[in-house]
Write a structure and sequence with these properties.
263 residues, mainly alpha, 0% strand, elongated
Length: 263
């Protein structure tokens, strides 16, 4: 077998390991799905009547707001998954399993690749559940098959980016507890963007931050693809943010993983 085939085989083995962990310990997956669903129900049924009326759409109220808020809730799922990935990586580092892997004749890259691919699959499945719940309570996208495929591609790019970043955060953390706190700021970004209210309604300073942080163009691109709203340069910004975060997260994670473990 060539070096590339060995690396692919080892990565597949590590992926199976992470998927089995996901099935064996479903509490993280349940939390990953449960929190966005709770926020979705809370904002639609508690705040949706008032916030939806303020959007100025033809239908108004909850029917208007569930369409508006669902892309932001979906992005909350991505941010929440980053915490689970960081904790999983930190546990492997602190419990000695990675030290064991270092002594084995396996591809070093496969350890992180297994975490990344496993987390991406888990996050995409969780987002599918959240979208399913949104459909049940009134989310009505107008997208055709091509738009759904494009939306899935956008989400996959962004999930991959935040997953690599969360892997790096897990590697830099000294414990699983520290790793659980490191990605917390990501959970706030959908709130500090266009996820729940239009950025035009925000004060000037906050509005500037909301419009130029990475979650807002992803949310607006999803709205455009699924609901037919204007996308503008959102798609370009989404690809740029995703590529930049992926590169930074990958290089940072690679450097941390390859450092001398005695340091």
């Amino acid at each position: 077998m060539t070096t590339l085939k060995y690396a692919a085989s080892d990565s597949a083995t590590m992926l199976r390991r992470n998927l089995r962990h996901m099935l064996r310990y479903p509490s993280m997956t349940l939390m990953l799905v449960g929190m966005p669903v709770i926020f979705l129900l809370l904002f639609v049924y508690v705040f949706g009547g008032t916030l939806g009326a303020g959007l100025g759409g033809a239908s108004g109220g909850r029917a208007e707001y569930v369409n508006y808020v669902t892309p932001g809730i979906v992005l909350m799922t991505v941010a929440g998954a980053a915490t689970g990935t960081a904790v999983s990586v930190a546990m492997d580092m602190t419990e000695g399993i990675v030290a064991r892997f270092r002594t084995m004749a396996i591809s070093r890259a496969s350890v992180l690749t297994g975490h990344v691919v496993g987390s991406v699959i888990q996050t995409l499945l969780s987002m599918a559940v959240v979208i399913g719940v949104a459909l049940l309570i009134g989310f009505r996208p107008t997208a055709g098959p091509l738009e759904w495929i494009a939306a899935t591609g956008v989400l996959t790019l962004f999930v991959l980016a935040l997953t690599w970043l969360s892997v790096a955060l897990g590697l830099v953390s000294k414990s699983a507890e520290a790793a659980s706190n490191a990605p917390m700021p990501l959970m706030l970004l959908p709130f500090l963007g266009s996820g729940f209210v239009p950025t035009e309604s925000m004060p000037a300073g906050l509005r500037w931050f909301a419009e130029y942080q990475p979650f807002t163009p992803v949310i607006e691109t999803l709205r455009g693809l699924l609901l037919g709203t204007p996308i503008g340069n959102g798609a370009i910004l989404t690809i740029a943010w995703s590529a930049g975060i992926t590169l930074i997260g990958y290089l940072w994670a690679k450097k941390l993983f390859n450092r001398d473990p005695s340091r």
